Amino acid sequence: MKKDLEKLDLNLLRLLCAVVETRNTHTASAKLGISQTSVSRGMAKLRETFGDRLFIRKAHGVEPSELAKRLAEAADVMLVPFIKVLESYQDFDPEAFEGTIRVAVHLLVLDVHGGELFDALRAGFPKAHIQLVYWQDHSLIELLRGDIDIMICFEGMGFPQDIYQCGLRDIEVCIVARSNHPVLTQTSAWEAIGNLPLARVISDGAPNPQDPMDDVYRAKGFEPKVALTTHSAQAILHKVASSDAIFYGSTYLGCLREDIDCYPLPPNVPAALNSYQLCCGYLQSKRDYPMTQVLHQVIQSYFDNTPQPELVSQLNG
Q1: Which of 42, 45, 263, 281 is the one with CA 20 to 30 A from 107?
Q2: Which residues pair with 228 in a beta bridge?
Q3: Residues of the chain above pLDDT 90, percent
Q4: Per-residue pLDDT tens digits for 55-96
Q5: pLDDT of 156 higher than 90
Q6: Given this structure, which CATH class describes domain 100-170+277-304?
Q7: How far apart are CA 291 and CA 101, in angstroms?
Q8: pTM for the full model?
Q9: Mean per-residue pLDDT for 42-63?
């Protein structure tokens, strides 16, 4: 019997429960929405697996044996969790979801978009407990373990195939510096900016900690002069606002302080460094999970409806 149980079709358990409940194979057929032929074949397989005395034929139906009744009770206990899982997929309501949603976000993105991103998540999941945490070196392990529902990071992070990745938006790169910068208000040519101090952001979890702009600087004959390296967007903005230092970032940063402007890149920067892609990622095994799908849609909608501001030079004509 052990080998028979290993091959047992779960649909046979549904049939067993229906026949025990209705005491009639024709009524069970209507209840399950299957043909009488399928019921007859299923009953034969049940007798083959559990014995001929599973049901006793009566004039107007069948009488389940004590074994059949107990098997039906056990099958019902086993099938209920399956049914609940299927119902959660079919009837998921984000507005009624009261669980925890954990989103790991690159700290620079979290500093810039955290407040509005939280508002978007709250609107999509009004009863959920939302956790917005910053992406760290150990966050990949948490994502693979299922402790993080979705992440928002930059492309090129080197994630394994277990993680499904999808682009959220392309972000144009510019020079972020103080308003009325004595050099950048005139030009962004390499000869003028090559020796300006630099502010840099630390990207935890990145496979290559070296900034790709370093190679561009050296190819132009300059040695990068890094004055500040930090996780914090606010620290970077304070540095560039209070000095002649510059930061290669996005025009989103220019919206965070009135004393900050965004200027064009110097000429001949490689095309691959003119923009970068912001992407989201989650477990491949959760791609069809309703909560993940809605979560992805909410985040995508936020970035679709948050256009990137223009450069100061474009605004000034």
Answers
A1: 263
A2: 199
A3: 53
A4: 888 878 888 888 888 888 888 777 777 666 665 566 788 998
A5: no
A6: alpha beta
A7: 9
A8: 0.69
A9: 82
Mean pLDDT of 47-54: 79
Q: Where are the domains of the chain?
A: 2-90, 100-170+277-304, 174-273
Q: Matching CATH topology for 2-90 and 100-170+277-304?
A: no
Yes or no: say if 175 and 184 are a contact pair by the CB < 8 Å rule.
Answer: yes
For residue 143, the model assigns a pLDDT of 93
Whether the predicted pLDDT of 22 surpasses 50: yes
Average pLDDT of the chain is 87
Helix 107-124 to helix 233-241 angle (10° resolution) is: 130
CATH number assigned to the domain with residue range 174-273, chosen from the 4 options 3.40.190.10, 1.10.1470.10, 3.40.50.300, 3.40.140.10 = 3.40.190.10
The two structure tokens encoding residue 5: 């149980």
pLDDT at 144: 93
